Task: structure prediction
Amino acid sequence: MTKKKSKFLNDLKKLLKKISYKKNNVIVFQTDIIVTSIFYKLDGNYIAKTILKLIEKNFLKKTILFPAFSDDFIKKKFDIKLSKPTTGIIPNLALLSGNYYRTESPLHSFLIKGKKLSEIKSLKQNTTWGEGSVFDWLYKKNGLWVSLNLNLNRGCAIHHMAEEKARVPYRFYKLFKGKIYYNGKFVKNTFEKKYSYYKKFSSKLNYNNWVHIMKKKKDFDKITISPGMFANVSTAKKIVDKSFSFYKKDPFGSFNLK
Result:
């Protein structure tokens, strides 16, 4: 093993060990490998495969989830097996492995493995982030949300749940309709209701203010091993509750009004 690979592997083990000290039985990993690949000067595929392998090994007794969001349903067709996640290479590798269950939420699916999978399979969501969704389940279970090698403004998708709860004025309920397939075979017609932002306001959204508030309140544990190996860690409940307070106080808190 080269020195670069050895350094990367040792740092990854240190990071995952620190995360494993958390007692939560449900853990979401929202991941990225770009900064890791650049810092350690290693191939992205090697990094992604190693991270996935060690997450599975270190959290074997937990229920682990990877966001596997897809834009395919906007084009009226979502394939549980073939629609590639837009959330990075690690969820794509998890999907290809065939070892994970993918939820049927066409816009915001999750890849899941672990003891509590049966609970998730029985969920029936009303809206993407609302009652009966995986996000709602994570909130009620107080799951741990890990933004792995991601800054908060890109690695904390569950915070959008608070935008819906607070009914921020730059979003509205939109109904998406289409078809679900599995490996190319039609399964059923379906729909998803999402608290979407108005397209004309998309350029004005700026979540840096929200990130600043969360850091100021010390609601996240920032675990840093190196510039290319870090994680922002908090519980789903704390993220949503603190974010909800933030948006109730200022509904335009993540909106650049200039």
Summary: The beta strands are 26-31, 63-67, 77-79, 101-102, 110-113, 144-148, 171-182, 185-197, 221-226, 229-235. The mean pLDDT is 93. The CA atoms of residues 81 and 183 lie 5 Å apart. The longest helix spans residues 3-20.
